[in-house]
Amino acid sequence: MTSDTSTARRSSRTGETWTIAQVAEAFDVTHRTVRHYEDLGLISPERRGTQRVYHRRDRTRLGLILRGKRLGFPLEEIRTIIDLFDAPRGRRTQLEYVLDQIDERRTDLEQRLRDVQDAIAELGEFERRCRDDLGRLDHV
Amino acid sequence: MTSDTSTARRSSRTGETWTIAQVAEAFDVTHRTVRHYEDLGLISPERRGTQRVYHRRDRTRLGLILRGKRLGFPLEEIRTIIDLFDAPRGRRTQLEYVLDQIDERRTDLEQRLRDVQDAIAELGEFERRCRDDLGRLDHV
DNA sequence: ATAGTGCTTTACGTTTACGTCAACGTCAAG
DNA sequence: CTTGACGTTGACGTAAACGTAAAGCACTAT
């Protein structure tokens, strides 16, 4: 049940690789979820015959996808974001486009940041009031 | 088209009130969305005859709902959270339950906070690399 | 009186993000 | 050579979060 190196890794000149079951377990999702992300073009694992072979790159992407999900972004939007990281940046127009996109994303993320900070602050305030109430109960 | 006080407010001894169209516009959602939240029990506006009448309390809740959505929480979970703020806290057991819930929420929010901060940091790093590329183009 | 504007409910449609079979391929172990 | 364990592709199902008519009530303005 613990990591069995003989099956957990399959040697390759490009480094370690994983099966779908392994990445699914590692990220605590189902294989169906992983395949769904592939259907939407968010990851594209290597094929060895008919089998999917996942590399570190795929794991990185999967991590980005799941974090994006926790932040409430739809998968389609997540795709455009992580594609951005691999986008061609050779020509000036391409680079300027990418920088524009980065700015849009940042604006969005900064709104999220404010949202989380506000929510945590309000929760703290609410907790303080509750502890006050609790103190009054003790006092009597 | 600007704010018309004669229709924007309807006097009441409990302060200003709004129609469904007004709150929908104020929060940039459709009336259908507002009614959907009511169906799920997230808001419960006053009724005057058959018409819905929204008070400041309802606007506050709507703000919390939309912020929760931006953070990726499902509506059902949002309902339990904002209900928590109005939950009875008279008895010790109730207070302790509420404090427990607060802690759970905070854990969740702190994960979100890390997610956003990480995402912003990575975006910044990526932007730096892009600007480097751009600089190299200028240099040549 | 009638037309218009805004609100109401009812109800079916749609999109997203998977879950859940079904049916079949493949490879090592017994 | 058959039996598992694991992998594969459809294909249909489902829950959440609304969208989108359809059809009717209430008030106001002409």
Textual characterization of the structure:
The structure is a homodimer of 140-residue chains. In chain A, 68% of the residues lie in helices and 4% in strands. Chain A is flat. Chain A is built from six helices and two strands, in the order H-H-H-E-E-H-H-H. Chain A folds into two domains: 1-73, Multidrug-efflux Transporter Regulator, Chain: A, Domain 2 (Orthogonal Bundle), CATH 1.10.1660.10; 87-140. The model of chain A is unreliable at 1-13 (pLDDT under 50). The longest helix of chain A is centred in the last third of the chain and has 48 residues, at 92-139. With 140 residues, the first copy, chain A, is mainly alpha-helical. The first copy, chain A, has a two-stranded antiparallel sheet with strand order 1-2. In chain A, a hairpin with a 2-residue loop joins strand 1 and strand 2 (51-53). Chain A binds chain B through residues 67-73, 85, 89, 92, 95-96, 98-99, 102, 105-106, 109-113, 115-120, 123-124, 126-127, 130-131, 133-134, 137, and chain B through 67-73, 85, 89, 92, 95-96, 98-99, 102, 105-106, 109-113, 115-120, 123-124, 126-127, 130-131, 133-134, 137. Chain A binds a DNA duplex (30 and 30 nucleotides) through residues 19-21, 30-33, 35-36, 40, 49-52, 69, 74-76.
Fill in the keyword field for this structure.
homodimer, mainly alpha, 2 domains, 2 strands, DNA-binding, Multidrug-efflux Transporter Regulator, Chain: A, Domain 2
